[in-house]
Design a protein that fits this description.
Layout lengths: L32 H4 L8 H19 L5 E5 L12 E2 L9 E2 L3 E4 L10 E9 L14 E4 L11 E4 L3 E3 L3 E4 L10 E2 L10 E3 L7 H9 L4 E5 L3 E7 L3 E2 L10 E2 L2 H11 L3 E8 L3 H14 L2 E5 L10 H8 E7 L2 E2 L3 E8 L11 E7 L3 H19 L10 E5 L10 E11 L2 E6 L9 H5 L2 E5 L11 E6 L5
Parallel strand pairs: 5-6, 13-16, 13-17, 14-15, 17-21, 19-23, 22-24
Antiparallel strand pairs: 1-12, 2-11, 3-10, 4-6, 4-7, 5-9, 8-9, 18-20, 20-21, 22-26, 23-24, 23-25, 25-26
The structure holds ligand LQZAQKY5 and molybdate ion.
Length: 462
């Protein structure tokens, strides 16, 4: 159902997930426990991912203004998002040069006879070119990276030659014409788009910029994401732990996952299960940040006030995801207070993650990560998934996606994987024993030992 009304991010609009249609009546304005935990069918993580992308597209359009930019020296630009295309200002390499230590000569000018024997008339080093032309039938001793002297086009490596100070000899078959010569512009030609806007500057990208002689780059200001935990039971690590309390672990996990993503986290601490306190911190968060993430208080318990508080300062949808861990999930927008002059936006997205610690990790990577990269104006690459053979049967119910903490290892030509630690969504021990997540789609029924599953590794290379 499409609704014609002021609705800057389309929260009220029917969404595009097949088999699911949210209507205004399901847009939760006040939590209603009886409806929240029953009734509407579960939403697949993929459908939720698409829904969030649709909502954000509207939000980004409505926002108009992009994140502002700043110019940074290369050494400070790691993991930042490039604001503009980088066009190569020079050829790289700037001159033809040798790929090997050896002898340079013109192939077409080789004299008859076997082995070939040439007089050595000079020397070229990287940074110290040989001066002047090299005549046909002559050679120059040349080192890797040295500019090819005028008149030469081929290099025979030292290993393939016999040399005295004055002459070099080699078998004619040892080199093809043009061998071991690197051409000017073969890495980048002047005018090439070396890096498109939106590139996340990983280490090799910084190397590329340096190779182009570029000392500083325009990058987007980092996306600021506010995080707070909700729950009367939560205490700060380091504080005393009264009966019934637990330490807040989600916030530290979330702040660190955000930092890994290149986002600037804003730690708003622990907020008690108090509607007024929640409303106030949400107003502050919308003023300070580009997006807001909470954990806990989204389901339908007596102390779950997060959705109502979001509804008071914006709009919120509540989804029961067909996902384990990570079933209750709230997505919405918070109005930016009119006095927040620093913010060109009218509203910021809100992600209400479930309280259980393993559910926080699962929903962050399945639903929040791509959304934040999009808001940061980064070209997001999908997280790689690798097929692996499970060595154990995996818990699986058809109709619900499962995220299983596991360890994968190389085995012959492929990978094997097995679950580790406690499968409880309230426990974190499995997350630190694991080196990957197994992602099982909802459609899948039982998974038996020997079946192939998709794994996503925790560690990336660059
Ligand atoms: N009757 C039902 N009860 C529950 C359902 C349900 O469908 N029906 N869903 C369960 C699932 S699944 C999850 S997940 C949780 C999520 O509920 P909330 O998002 O409202 O989270 P809380 O109730 O506040 O907390 C759940 C759990 O997580 C602990 N927690 C919360 N915050 C933190 C934190 N920052 N650090 C560490 N641990 C935290 C909290 O103490 C609870 O144990 O609801 C189920 N219940
Ligand atoms: O989301 Mo809950 O963690 O599935 O337990």
């Amino acid at each position: 159902m499409r609704v014609a009304r002021a609705d800057p991010v389309g929260l009220a609009a029917g969404h595009d997930a097949p088999g699911h249609s949210f209507s205004l009546s399901q847009r939760i304005v006040m939590p209603d426990p009886s409806r929240a935990l029953s009734g509407n069918s579960d939403l697949s993580p993929d459908a939720a991912h698409r829904l969030i992308a649709t909502r954000l597209a509207v939000l980004c359009d409505a926002r108009g203004a992009a994140l502002s930019t700043e110019r940074l020296p290369l050494a400070q630009a790691l993991d930042r998002v490039l604001a503009d295309d980088v066009v190569a200002p020079i050829d790289v390499p700037a001159h033809d040069n040798s790929a090997m230590d050896g002898y340079a000569f013109a192939h077409a000018g080789l004299p008859d006879g076997e082995p070939v024997s040439l007089p050595v008339v000079g020397r070229a080093l990287a940074g110290r070119p040989h001066d002047g032309d090299v005549g046909r039938g002559m050679a120059v001793r040349i080192m890797t990276g040295a500019a090819m002297p005028e008149g030469t086009d081929t290099v025979v490596p030292i290993e393939a030659a016999t040399c005295s100070p004055a002459r070099v000899q080699f078998a004619r078959a040892a080199v093809r014409p043009g061998a071991n010569r690197r051409h000017a512009g073969e890495d980048w030609a002047r005018g090439d788009i070396a890096l498109p806007a939106g590139t996340v500057l990983r280490p090799p990208a910084l190397g590329v910029l340096a190779s182009l002689g570029i000392a500083s780059v325009a990058v987007r200001r980092r996306l600021r994401v506010a995080v707070f935990s909700t729950g009367d039971e939560l205490r700060e690590p380091g504080d005393a732990l009264p009966a019934g309390a637990i330490y807040d672990s989600n916030r530290f996990n979330l702040l660190a996952m955000l930092r890994r993503l290149g986002v600037e986290p804003l730690d708003l601490g622990i907020v008690p299960d108090d509607p007024a306190a929640l409303r106030q911190v949400l107003v502050d968060a919308a003023r300070l940040a580009d997006a807001v993430i909470t954990s806990g208080g989204v389901s339908a318990g007596d102390a779950d006030h997060v959705r109502a508080a979001v509804a008071a300062s914006g709009e919120v949808e509540y989804w029961k995801l067909a996902l384990r861990p990570g079933r209750p999930f709230a997505f919405g927008t918070l109005r930016v207070p009119a006095d927040a002059t620093a913010q060109p936006r009218q509203s910021v997205p809100f992600f209400g993650l479930p309280g259980n610690p393993a559910a926080v990790v699962a929903t962050f990577y399945l639903l929040v990560r791509d959304a934040l990269l999009r808001l940061a104006q980064a070209r997001a690459e999908p997280v790689p998934r690798v097929p692996a053979t499970t060595t154990a049967a995996l818990p699986k119910r058809a109709g619900r996606a499962e995220v299983i903490r596991a360890r994968a290892q190389r085995d012959g030509g492929g990978w094997t994987v097995a679950p580790v630690g406690s499968p409880s969504s309230g426990a974190l021990n499995a997350m630190v024993q694991a080196n990957c997540l197994v992602l099982l789609e909802a459609e899948r029924a039982a998974v038996n030992a020997g079946d192939t599953v998709d794994v996503t590794f925790f560690d990336g290379l660059l």
